[in-house]
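Q: Predict the bound structure with zinc ion.
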Amino acid sequence: MDRRVFIKTTSRLSAGLVLLPDFGITSRPGKGYIMTVNGKIKPSEMGLSLTHEHVLVDGSKGATGEIWWDREDVKKVVIPYLDELKEHGCRTFFEFTPSYIGKDVKLLKELADATGLQIITNTGYYGANNNKHIPDHAYGESAEQLAARWVSDFKNGMQGTTIKPGFIKTAVNKGPLSEFHQKLIKAATLTHLKTGLTIASHTSDGEPAMQEIEVVIENGADPSAFIWTHAQHEKDLSTHLEAAKKGAWISLDNVRRKNVEKYVTKILNLKENGYLGQILLSHDAGWYTPGQENGGNFRGYTSLFTHLIPALRETGFTQGEIDQIMIKNPAEAFAIRVRKYRRK
Ligand SMILES: [Zn+2]
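A: Predicted complex:
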């Protein structure tokens, strides 16, 4: 059964149990829940969602995790952008700034309270950029020990609050996966199996992405628990299909006005091969920079609505297909539930 048939079947059997013979798991559409900075919501309450954005990014303090900015200054700049986003119908915002690069869960809660947007934050470590943002303890600890820290974030909250992560964010370098990055993905997979949190891994090209999918499987989770973040960097579009065939999510997440045509090509490739139900789209925008005047060159979150979606409509995408990508896929990708791998 291909993905197109699957989508038709799931809509016909929307309340029933659906078998996914492609990757050998059972899944009930709408199962699981979403963890926002203000607690649980149902996947059906997410609405239109941006699945990879940033509020504030700060790499200036190495791997200390120090929060040194004035939240009021940040809010003054960011709230108008979030309000603008809401005017485009967006209700849910996945904030992808990782631990030690400016993640500030209190700030995110204050922004959620001020705007009414449903904001989701993360746990996990960022190994890309040659491990510059990896805390020292991560080198000596096992995957199991790292997973225990991330599971604790999910059980108890983070940064001295009760705010919990809604997904796992990791990151690896380009090229073949290093041993250390394999350990990060193993730790993420073990965390998934204990919590049901989805793994989103900053990965540029296809080579490490396919290796990550293997690490996920080897450690017992289904690739449908894995998001290939920044998949747009892979030029060979057949690799998107290969990863999607395994069941992984393909995140094309740097939409800008000037790259809309390239995105249409990549989205069409996935759609025409039956993987419309595994595409995630976002801007990877925002990036308030503490220390710079007014946060520096802040990038808004609307090109997707003003440029990409109209371009998709011109190419023949129906409203139902756009809703699939912007509403149903985020709900399915991020719904918290354990996805175990079962051999076919
Ligand atoms: Zn990002």
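A: The first strand starts at residue 18 and ends at 20.
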